[in-house]
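Tutorial handout. Part one gives the primary structure; part two gives the three-dimensional structure as tokens.
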Amino acid sequence: MGRSTTLVLVLVLAAVLGLFLVQRGGAQRGAPVTTERPVETGLAAQPAPVDPPVDADPRRSSLVTPEAEPSAPLPEGPTPAGPPAAETLVTLNGAAVRVDGAGAEHAGDDGGFTLGWRRGALHAAQEIEVLGGRWAAEVPADARLYLRDLILDAAPLWLEERERLVPPDHFLLLRGIERRAIRLHVLSARDGSPLDDIEVWPGPQSFPTAIQHPGAQPEGQAVARNARSPVTIPPRADAFRNDSQYFVRAPGHAWGSIAVDHAQGGERTLQLEPAARLTVELIGNATWLDPLVRLWPPDASPYAAYPIAQRKPDTDDLALFEALPPGTYRVSVERGWADRRESYASTILVLAEGEDARVSLHIALPEEPVAVRVSGTLEIAAGWDASQAELAFGGEGQAEKWLTEELKLDASDMQPGKANGAAAAGSTHLAWSVDLPCAGGYRVEVYPFVVRRFLDVPPTGLEGVQLVVASPAQVEVRVVEEASRAELFPESLRWGNPPIAEIIGTPVYTANADPHSGRVRFRAPAGWLRIYPSDYSLVPVTDEERFEVLPGPNAIELVVRRQFSVSFRFMDGDATLPWERAWRLGALRADGAARDVARGRGILWFAEPGTYALTSQGIPGYHSIDGTRFEVRAGAAELEVVVPLVRE
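Part two.
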């Protein structure tokens, strides 16, 4: 075996293990970041982000969407063992150009970047050095490449194209745009004067501005301390996107939150309210309850997901919120998230400017949950690598409040089991058991084999649960346009299992097109699958995009029709408002009985022309835009709607 082949073998095996662990990292229910299991790598240039299908659930925080880019390319589902054949490797030569803030190109810089690739279900990532603007790497000839973390001349850059196929001439030019610093004017909301001794801290990278106050001291390292307005905020080296959220405060003033776009640079202004302070005392709390103290607007919807602030009480059952803006708050002691949350004590509180308030809440303890044991067997058909098997248990309904992070068992936690009479030849059998926090509904998912079940666990526990990974099916998809019957060649398709009624959210995977045939191929356990385009301009003709695949080769025809895109531009007088990622738009059919709903952010997609009425979650500081009407015209591939805003 040659030296280069050995290196690739090591990289592949390390990356498969590492990426598998990253993908299945523990879900934090209190800070969900996405709504689907890997549907995109997040590394491709894309149109404005669009909401996921309505059966997805943002509670699944280990899932990934274009809103939150993963740290490395994600697998396309089941990953067979072994590296690509050595003869498929080619040497990819390239150049890297830095584009500065003035648009000038610099071609001779030193630096580096991360190069990932996927070939079928195999994937790997490696760090590439750039010397004098040149670089080289060995990759499979038919791989799809994922590029990130480009740094040239010590400057973090934003790549114009972050997902590519291997070019026929094996040469690839990278153009990185300098992310520019933001000049932030931090002013007193009382009189507009510039402030001193300013602190700036990085906020969460997912859903900027969703959390308006850090609760306690923000995590990470301060961007600026003891600064005077205006403050220069450099681009974050660890940012997944150009836009980043920051928490800002100054002595005597409350925390403020702002999202800025480092690709645009320029100047922004943030006004800070006078500060108040609140201590919440929990009376009658129990350690097993392990609640969060959350601050909500007084009229917050019971379905609202993101409070103004939240934090855990300390060992003395006290939760301290410093530097709060004055105003009216609902203070609530809770478990659960969004519509699943439950409050055990709450009150409405009015905080005045400069007030140091204290409120005591008497906890109405629920019934203490009693742990239950669930056990069973896992059968993995021949053709899969059983050593990769992992079971992940998550709560549904009431159980979700008590199982806030997935419980996981990998193959090393299981014991060899006995085959039953119907077991397939060559299959692997493993016995497992797990202790869950209470009776109720649970989902169990078998990774990386795209298998999931719903378990209704009684108070006595559950035995004899049989989980089966069926034999591998090789799937090739031909995409055909309904009107012309012409074959289309989308770069990728999404696929996954049909929804399970008792489980909110359905994992969705991405499979990329083969660069030679143009058709999408992937492996999955035999059974029923949903398959539909990743490109939102295409939609399956029927809502039942379900196909039965059998062990061995499967040829599928997916019939699609085109959709219309509508983008929205919000105007404050003559100025266009920068798009905020926290804004949400939708549309309802307004000229007929049908209520066609298209959800999204910045761009909506419509299957039918007609008159629609805009809906939104509101644009802070402006009157409602709900009901704004617009026309979706047949044959218009793209439409922009300009919406004038009126200040409150």
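Part three, for discussion. The CA atoms of residues 26 and 405 lie 6 Å apart. Residues 1-87 have pLDDT under 50 and may be disordered.
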